[in-house]
Design brief:
Pfam families: Polyketide_cyc2. This protein is an alpha+beta fold and 146 residues long. Helix content is 25%, strand content 47%. It has one domain: Alpha-D-Glucose-1,6-Bisphosphate, Chain A, domain 4.
């Protein structure tokens, strides 16, 4: 099994507010550097996205991918790759935990396997950059209240 990369950040907002931003895929191009387009292809009976098409541009890697989402309660969402041009697999999750007065600890886990050969060390470094950028963008978006 592939190793995953993870990182955490504390956001000064309630878990429901953080999850609200995570679940608002249409706004991803506003706060994530790599997502250029996001389109919800299907939703569950609670109106949460089950499949999302993302057009990514991460410099050397440009991709048009579809991810399948699984929501566990109000504090966790995970995803897995359904279709991609550049990736063999992609599994990730956001896990939210209350962290004191009105704050939330957000842990982002990611495992990526690209179709092109890449050294494990380089792949994990790329995963770490993606995670850190996503968490910083999420924190800025949630805390700005935009």
């Amino acid at each position: 099994m592939a190793e995953h990369t993870s990182s955490s950040i504390t956001i000064e907002a309630a878990p429901a507010d953080v999850m609200g931003v995570i679940a608002d895929f249409a706004r991803y191009p506003d706060w994530t550097g790599e997502v250029k387009e996001a389109e919800v292809l299907g939703t569950d009976d609670q109106g949460r996205a089950e499949q999302v098409r993302l057009v990514m541009d991460a410099g050397a890697i440009k991709d048009d991918q579809v991810l399948g989402y699984t929501w566990t309660g109000d504090h966790e969402v995970s995803w897995t790759l359904v279709k991609s041009q550049m990736l063999r697999s992609l599994d990730g999750s956001y896990i939210l935990k209350p962290a004191g007065a009105g704050a939330t600890e957000v842990t982002y886990q990611l495992t990526v396997d690209v179709k092109i050969p890449m050294l494990g060390m380089i792949k994990r470094k790329a995963e770490k950059v993606i995670i850190d950028r996503a968490l910083a963008g999420l924190k800025k978006r949630v805390e700005s209240g935009a």
